[in-house]
Write a structure and sequence with these properties.
Structural class: alpha+beta
Helix content: 25-40%
Radius of gyration: 28 Å
Low-confidence stretches: 41-75, 139-149, 461-465
Mean pLDDT: 74
Number of strands: 13
Largest sheet: 7 strands, antiparallel
Strand content: 15-25%
Shape: globular
Length: 598
Amino acid sequence: MKKEAFDMVTLVLIGLLGGLITAVSPCILPVLPVVFLAGGPGADAPAPRDVAAVAVGGAARDSAPGGAPPPVRSGRNLRPYAVVAGLVVSFGFFTLLGVTIISALGLPQDLLRYVGLSLLVLIGLGLVFPPVERVLEKPFSRIPQRQVNREGSAFVLGLGLGLLYVPCAGPVLAAITVAGARGEIDGDIVVLTLAFAVGTAIPLLAFALAGRRVAERVAAFRTRARRLRVVSGILMIALAFALAFDVTTALQRALPDYTSAAQRRVEDSDAARQKLSGLYDDSNEELSRCEDGVDELRSCGQAPPLAGIAGWLNTPGGLPLDLADLRGRVVLIDFWTYSCINCQRSIPHIEEWDRAYRDKGLTVIGVHSPEFAFEKNAGNVADQTRKLGITYPVALDNELDTWDAYRNRFWPAKYLIDAEGTVRYFTFGEGRYARTENLVRELLRQADPSVVLPPPTDQSDDRLTADRTPETYLSTHRIRGYTGTPELTQDEPVVHSFPAGGVPLGKVSLAGTWTAGYEHFTAGPDARLALTYRARNANLVLAGEGTVTVLVDGERTRTVEVHGTPTLYRLTEHDTAREARLELRLTPGLQAFAFTFG
């Protein structure tokens, strides 16, 4: 019972932190102006006769019956809470159930998006033109907002915004989206969704409360109510058209992905991977042997087929591609979705690789796995593919069958498949472009040693790759840079000691009892391991049952729980690449295989 409660708390924390990070990412910029203006001034703010509503505050009547100024009610302005509550309720509900409802009713996949856009335009028109406002009040329960009902109508405004809210997706939102799209909704998914929605709401609520405070404190908001209502309405209409015609994405693409490090730390942590792993079945488990973004090619198992594809773009006559027919060529599969800003920023690099290496033996396939229902519309995907300049084949993975087959968790994600059909490398998110291209070139040379390749297209992260500590194997056959006493002895327990002068950069040392083997080192009594590295993070493949205490530069930072077969565990995470001394204290019996660094 205690374990179940602990697991549930862990799931809630993962969802909550994932939502917090998402709500401060560049992807939510389009909804911020409306959230800010939606707070409006409180009804208790000093006001002239026409200040029953300001910005997108409640509708005002010019006078009460008999020509007297309307009464101003006192009370707390709860509009910020109402609009944010409406947004997260709408977003959470339709993310989980929107696809199921639309499919069951046979409605267009992008219907919800158009409903949200229409609602935003209608509310904007109502703010600008009072006659429109009065017409809208009847069917929409007094929308736009009136003094007597501002909270209820603000909630409806939030419902409309929730239909247009397209946050950057990490593993948490991906798990929610995939579960909703496949109709596989259980208690854990509902809890995860609620926690994610609450996490998203906190920064948005802070922004809405800031808008309310500005409206209550700045004199111009109290003395120019009507003018500000008109400006707010125009901004709403402008936002609706900007979203409809994809104008906002240019700004989003221009901004750096400043939340990626935090998102990886939380949503791609060992705990998150374990809690979200229930999304997968036992198929293609070999893909789990490899980890994200390593520096070398590995054998990650046979590439799963492209399953459940609803259609193809950029192929002759729309004919499908089959991985079996591409044997002898290197294949790069890019999982993406067109509303994902991170995906959009990575596409120019992929397009460059396609142009440079298509004639040298590379086939690029974009697998479009939709995050939202409106992204299932083939016309929308074709239009965005054209706008983004994509010329390589695109598979429409509308039911996320191929996504599941590859056990994927991220938008974007890139998988490299060699000429024999084996997955050799994958990387999640943006970045690592030079590393990925270098591995593409290596696979092309393996497939055809006589191939003449053009110069690399992108070496922007070569310096970071060169400075980073390389992968380090704990194997008597493959270890590099061991330092300490005595020398390693294979398959015998030996008591080791750290060197007196410390462990140099890139070197590994042991203390306590260890049994060094051909494939791994096994910890004995008082087993410790020291390593000095340079990277943003350090990871270690471990197996067995026990714990690993992690110390960085002499300070204890975390305790890692190890269970079962060899699995990659994240040991450290830094905001930028740095040099650090790592010391591990392991439970006797644990097996350590290899360090990787990112």
